[in-house]
Amino acid sequence: GKCEACGAWNSLAEEAPAREAAPKGLGAKPGRKLAFVSLEGAGEPLVRLESGIAEFDRVFGGGLIPGSAALVAGDPGIGKSTLLLQAAAGLAGRRLPVAYVSGEEGVDQIRLRARRLGLADAPVSLAAATSLRDILTGLEALSPPPAVVIVDSIQTLFVDTLESAPGTVAQVRASAHELIR
Questions:
Q1: Model pTM?
Q2: Cβ atoms within 10 Å of 121's Cβ, excluding its own
Q3: Nearest Cα to 92, choosing from 146, 133, 129?
Q4: Which of 98, 122, 126, 160 has the fewest CB atoms within 10 Å distance of its CB?
Q5: What is the mean pLDDT of each run of 10 residues along the chain (181 residues)?
């Protein structure tokens, strides 16, 4: 063929098409092959962790499932923190190690609420922090390790490797991912 730019004949060279790049962030290493199963069949029955608060447990299908993550959301001032503190005490009363981390209130404020609710003697491990790195380090040091971790609230946490402010989508997403991991 003739080059339209310079007019020379038979000067065109074929170029191999570029290889398709791997999806952004995944690199070139292949993943492992998943084994898919049908919806039919029976698995192990799910053990539920009951808080003793009937409506709370009902909303969670009979209690919390170990290894799951749940988000309790609602308008400010409707009692999310109070409900979570009551659930923490109920779970701890069933001999489950429970950790409650507050990013919104100090330890003394939470203790005061627990006294008002008659929960001051519940064996809940309590901390106040907003640095996710500090929270994870503290959780790893607990013995026995907690069966349930309550973080009130995720929007107050920050991951120090991100430049964005606490409460941004990136911070909440990164915090949730690391807590689940």
A1: 0.79
A2: 11
A3: 146
A4: 160
A5: 80 71 69 90 88 96 94 94 97 97 96 97 97 97 96 95 94 95 90
